[in-house]
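WARN  no MSA supplied for this record, continuing single-sequence
INFO  ligand: arginine
INFO  echoing inputs
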Amino acid sequence: MKKLWNGRFKDYAADWIEEFGASISFDQELVMEDLQGSIVHVEMLKECGIISEEDAELITGGLKSLKAKAEKNELLYDVSSEDIHLNLEKMLIEKIGPVGGKVHTGRSRNDQVATDMHLYLKKQVKEIINEIGDFQEVLMGKASGHIETIAPGYTHLQRAQPISFAHHLMAYFWMLQRDKERYQDSLKRIDLSPLGAGALAGTTFPIDRQMTAEKLGFSDLYENSLDAVSDRDFIVEFLSNSSILIMHLSRFAEEVILWASQEFQFIELHDSYATGSSIMPQKKNPDMAELIRGKTGRVYGHLIGMLTILKGLPLAYNKDMQEDKEGMFDTVKTIRTSLKVFTGMIETMSVNEQRLSAAVRKDFSNATELADYLAAKGIPFREAHEIVGKLVLKCIGEGKYLSDVKLEEFKESCPLIEESIYNILTPEQAVMRRNSYGGTGFEQIKLQLKQAEKALKKECVPQ
Ligand code: ARG
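INFO  complex generated
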């Protein structure tokens, strides 16, 4: 079939070679951005007197009718037209005649595709920012209901010190806050217009890049045409930010999986976020959490893929860059669905308060309380640590916990221990007394929730 770039060629590629080079199977995702970019470009060509008003009208009309069709999913793409840009240009020419070919005046597919991707990613990143915000609100809501729910806090996955369950949930709130800030900051660099850079060197036509940038809603322009068409940093940055976000989701997913297990039983997932086994009738599997943990692999993969694609590329455009799209699209989809699923999973899970509170009673996670108690009485902390360590060893030997130790026994370990120790050893006191800024103490959590609310309120997604 005749190509739009046919002039220089005598022969045609075989279908299978043509298919190898084509990107239409995936870059059709950019149809709206491509049409929007073309409409604005043509308006500018007209206003700068580069094409006549009459031609511009015809072309814009044609582009708008393609847009209406695209909205209804009625465009039929053809692999022999290679990519979304050539497909649309061909459709335009078919619709309005050869004048349609003027759409590409002063433009190249190189600045065109870069423009499309900037537009696409800007829109998607804003959606992601909002979706992170929705998740944070759910976390805050859950946390507010569990300020006084006491749970074991871990290090090395060994019971360490009791904490408020709200504190644990809010740790993820702040991770997400940083993730959101990273996306927000990246918008500055996504929000740049490459349009008008041409193939690599700019154009001889008296175009107005400022005008197209403004009409497309971009805040600024690329200063260098070579950079404009060969920059994919904004995609690398998006993939990096997404990798960090999904790493956080994956850690959280891992905890959800542990908590939902028979061994922990700290939470129960809503039936709609779990699945059964085809053979074992008793099973309720946390598939959604596992999938999110698993999908982390593909997002990291896309990041490494993109970095590798770019690493040896000479300026400016190279066809290698066509490989930038699938990973970006897949990451957008993966991040957005993972956020949505996670939000619902946390919103609907139930927290087993009895299990949690029983867990902190049958362990030695109050050992620090006793050590701190002795240190507060003037014993150097290192010695206090040793005294308590020996006592714990003794208790393990006798099959009991610190709260079961009689006062006389305590006094044998250290005569400074008094009756008041029993209250101090309760998990409630252990949590409540950790009132240092950012600590798990109930008062601190209330303050933290206020700070979280403030952080959510002050945000605004740039236009
Ligand atoms: N489909 C191409 C891509 O996505 C568009 C740019 C083509 N430019 C070129 N000089 N062949 O990279």
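The chain has a mean pLDDT of 95.
INFO  checksum written, moving to next record
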